[in-house]
Amino acid sequence: MRQPLAGVKVVEVAMWGFVTSAGAVLADWGADVLKVEHAVTGDPQRGLRRTGQFVVEGDTNVNFEHPNRGKRSIGVDIGTESGREILDDLIRGADVFLTSLLPSAQRKFKIEVDDVRAANPSIIYARGSALGTRGEESERGGYDMTAFWCRASTAQSLTPPDIEGIIGPPAPAYGDTISGTNLAGGIAAALFARERGGEPSVVDVSLLGSGVWSMGLAIDSSLMANKPAVAAPTGVRASLNPLTSMYRTSDDRWISLVMLQPMRYWAEFCQHIDRADLADDARFNSYEVLETNAAEAGRLIADAIAAQPLSHWTTRFATMSGPWAPVQDTLQAGADAQIRDNGYITTVQAADGEEFELVASPVKFDGADTELRRAPLFAEHTDAVLEGLGLDWDRIIQLKVDGVVA
Predict the structure, then answer these.
(1) Running DSSP on this structure, what letter comes out for residue 168?
(2) Based on the domain organization, do 39 and 128 belong to the same domain?
(3) Residue-wise over 204-213: b if at least 16 C-beta within 10 A, else e?
(4) Contact 207, 130 (CB under 8 A)
(5) Which domain holds residue 330?
(6) What whole-number distance in Å separates Cα of residue 129 and Cα of residue 139?
(7) How many structural domains does the chain have?
(8) 366 plus 327 within the same structural domain
(9) Mean pLDDT value across residues 2-10
(10) Is the pLDDT of residue 370 over 90?
(11) Residues 78 and 186 in one domain
């Protein structure tokens, strides 16, 4: 069962990265996702060619490809009477209606729950919002930077107190992609419940809620202790467990150790850094004394690791049972053999036949790699979709002349 959602039809009225990435995950899982774009302007994400330090050159725009791969596109002005009739026809044949439009726009275009259910009472209605559907601010929009990263506490919790400003997110659409996966999972659960004979659900996920969930354990602990989580000052990595820290190698790379039960791994670790003498050292041979002398143990470990490059430690630690990892940048992660071997990055063929690579969504079924297809060109499937609805060519041409479809 490599595509568990094969046969599921999704109508997506969404823009930018959050909700559209949910549609991308559903498409990865086999759903037929029809992206409804405005007949003239389309999804504004098509024009987003700069994200941070990266500028897109050429026809293939990964900013659009990442959250829209595998979909079909139809250009329709749903604000017109004829466009709305087309949308209702699409809704009648769908399993899921997916939208990112603000509540005011949902009302304007008559795509609130009751409107959509009037065309298809059994449809699952899924929506993504910035700040949730309740409360005084439920009508407001937002982006992952505002609602997910800043308001839900990641930014402040990650920023050391001795630097100016606030640390920004590590990647474009960071909170969007995480939140979109949450929404896709909620939709899958709703499909399962309906398949079991339950009522069709209304599925809600917000950037704020996903951000709070991502910080959940820290927020739980803060509420219990009545104090905020605070990042350590720059350069400070003090720990009562020297096997949960980061250490610099001789070639200026870093290694992360996370061995939460230090005495379980201490003797073996000492052997792997060629300091077997430390295993029985009276300063470190029990939980109590290791915690007391953690700073000294950390200094000795740092000295040992700093004597060799990362390639040396990669070979040495290959036989070590304790968890560790190299600290990698985005290009290094993209070249990581383990990432490649697991199919977490996949080759996609662009519309012009050229190949490029995209990160796959993380869920696998039956061990099979996700087979990704490119994002649609603007309104690429309009004619085929309208023909599928039974419209003849005279009607389709007239709709194009009227500006209702593209």
Answers:
(1) P
(2) yes
(3) bbbbbbbbbe
(4) yes
(5) 244-335
(6) 9
(7) 2
(8) no
(9) 93
(10) no
(11) yes
